């Protein structure tokens, strides 16, 4: 796909459904009694992987009048799948399903694509094993494929070494099947969609600071869920709206859960004009319309507890930093190395190819803004967020940018191009 300098972005856009919340709505719907009705579900490839895994385990999931209906079979209603469960490119599917499968009465093999087979699974195998789970990496390299033999589980108090909602959620979901209470404490608070949604399904779960506590459930109950727009998808248009001169856009229905809204806080800190003319609750999650106006940005330091609240937005923030005045330093973000690609390396290499002054560090990067960028051939590493980040960078660069591995955007944002075109007016 090819991109070049853009006219101002104008108009408004309805942001597609949140990926993290869409995954959870299928999973918890499958484990609940009765039907769960999901509106504004994200039909990205990752969430479709979750649907296909649960269908393989006997759950009837259908689409009706634009909504997804999950006909749950209760906490003990999953069936042993025929063959291997394929989680595709999705870390959320792999890790959260592992937590659920640990407490079933059947065995399963779980795998995914080339990227998933390189991502660390020791971080879930360790706490789940402590709960009594029988889970192992078939190649003994700490990655998928995983073999999980369902087993009786017991509650634990676990302190995670990394702030990861996928790890926290895997342990909490296993906790649904454990005897006794399960506690997870994180070094900083990661996204809390699991806690919010499990509670609405009737689970006995509570949060105190960075600790979440769950007690085994006797039953979950199907819900009607309205998925808010994904702030991680909105982030691309936030950056473009702030940086393409003369732009003003309204991004409608964006989830602004405080465990996810770091990108708004950081762009404002950099001088970005983002207003919220309308805030409301959407399916138990705070949401807002965001009015974004172009202006100049300046560099900043991004570190500490804010990192988990913008971890998936760091690539596009780093690209935006190239157009800001002064230096931007990103620290405490070593987790970027174990995402769909090594996002520190992928960002720095590709930004440099466009002429940016960018430097890798142990746990982040340093970007010195103000140098004009030029078009280049970008290697997305088949990572959806890297591909979309460079489509946005190209809108402010001289000449043409070519992103050959483009189809990966289907993972989280199949309509990205159409939405971008609607704001540019062609
Ligand atoms: C996710 C959690 C985050 C995030 C990922 C989705 C989730 O990963 O990067 O895109 O849905 O729980 P970690 O929990 O590993 O940080």
Shape: globular
Give the helix/strand class.
Answer: alpha/beta
Let me know the CATH homologous superfamily of the largest domain: Enolpyruvate transferase domain
What fold name goes in the CATH topology slot of the largest domain? UDP-n-acetylglucosamine1-carboxyvinyl-transferase, Chain
Q: In percent terms, what proportion of residues is strand?
A: 25-35%
Whole-number tally of structural domains: 2
Rg measurement, Å? 21 Å
In what order do the strands lie side by side in the largest sheet?
2-17-19-18
- The number of distinct helices, counting runs of at least 4 residues, comes to 12
Estimate percent helicity. Answer: 25-40%
Key descriptive features of the protein:
single chain, 426 residues, 12 helices, 4-stranded mixed β-sheet, UDP-n-acetylglucosamine1-carboxyvinyl-transferase, Chain, alpha/beta, binds shikimate-3-phosphate
Please sum up the structure shown:
With 426 residues, this protein is α/β, with parallel strands linked by helices.
Write the layout of secondary structure elements.
Blueprint: E1 2-3, E2 10-14, H1 19-31, E3 33-39, H2 45-56, E4 60-64, E5 67-73, E6 85-86, H3 91-101, E7 107-111, H4 122-130, E8 134-137, E9 146-149, E10 153-154, E11 157-159, H5 165-175, E12 178-179, E13 182-185, H6 193-200, E14 204-208, E15 211-215, E16 224-226, H7 231-243, E17 248-255, H8 262-269, E18 273-282, E19 285-293, E20 301-302, H9 314-321, E21 327-330, H10 343-353, E22 357-361, E23 364-368, H11 384-394, E24 401-402, H12 416-424
Parallel strand pairs: 2-17, 3-16, 6-7, 10-12, 11-13, 20-21
Antiparallel strand pairs: 1-24, 3-5, 4-5, 7-9, 8-9, 13-15, 14-15, 17-19, 18-19, 21-23, 22-23
Bound molecules: shikimate-3-phosphate.
Residues 20, 92, 164-166, 169, 190-191, 311-312, 335 line the site of shikimate-3-phosphate.
């Amino acid at each position: 796909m090819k991109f070049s300098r853009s006219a101002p972005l104008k108009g408004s856009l309805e942001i597609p459904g949140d990926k993290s919340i869409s995954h959870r709505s299928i999973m918890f719907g499958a484990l609940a009694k009765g039907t769960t009705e999901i509106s504004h579900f994200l039909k990205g490839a990752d969430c479709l992987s979750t649907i296909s895994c649960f269908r393989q385990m006997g759950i009837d999931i259908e689409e009706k009048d634009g909504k997804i209906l999950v006909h749950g079979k209760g906490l003990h209603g999953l069936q042993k799948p025929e063959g291997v469960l394929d989680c595709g490119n999705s870390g959320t599917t792999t890790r959260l399903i592992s937590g659920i499968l640990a407490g079933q009465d059947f065995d399963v093999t779980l795998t995914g694509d080339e990227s998933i087979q390189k991502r660390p699974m020791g971080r879930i195998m360790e706490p789940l094993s402590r709960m009594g789970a029988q889970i192992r990496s078939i190649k003994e390299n700490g990655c998928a494929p995983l073999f999980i033999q369902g087993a009786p589980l017991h509650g634990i108090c676990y302190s995670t070494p990394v702030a990861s909602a996928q790890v926290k959620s895997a342990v909490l979901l296993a906790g649904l099947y454990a005897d006794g209470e399960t506690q997870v404490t994180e070094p900083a608070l990661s996204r809390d969609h699991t806690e919010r949604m499990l509670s609405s399904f009737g689970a006995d779960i509570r949060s105190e600071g960075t600790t979440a506590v769950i007690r085994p459930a006797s039953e979950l109950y199907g819900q009607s869920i309205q998925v808010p727009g994904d702030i991680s998808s909105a982030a691309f248009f936030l950056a473009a709206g702030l940086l393409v001169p003369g732009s003003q856009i309204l991004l409608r229905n964006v989830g602004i859960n405080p465990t996810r809204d770091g990108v708004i806080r950081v762009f404002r800190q950099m001088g970005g004009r983002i207003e919220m003319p309308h805030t409301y609750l959407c399916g138990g999650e705070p949401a807002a319309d965001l009015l974004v106006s172009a202006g100049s940005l300046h560099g900043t330091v991004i570190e500490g507890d804010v990192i988990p609240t913008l971890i998936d937005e760091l690539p596009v923030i780093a690209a935006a930093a190239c157009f800001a005045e002064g230096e931007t330093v990103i620290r405490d973000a070593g987790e970027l190395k174990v995402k769909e690609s090594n996002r520190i390396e992928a960002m720095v290499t590709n930004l440099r190819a466009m002429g940016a002054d960018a430097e890798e560090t142990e746990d982040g990067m340093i970007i010195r803004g103000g140098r004009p960028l030029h078009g280049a051939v970008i290697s997305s590493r088949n990572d959806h967020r890297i591909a979309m980040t460079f489509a946005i960078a190209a809108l402010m660069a001289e000449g043409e940018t070519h992103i050959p591995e483009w189809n990966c955007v289907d993972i989280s944002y199949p309509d990205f191009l159409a939405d971008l075109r609607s704001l540019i007016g062609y």
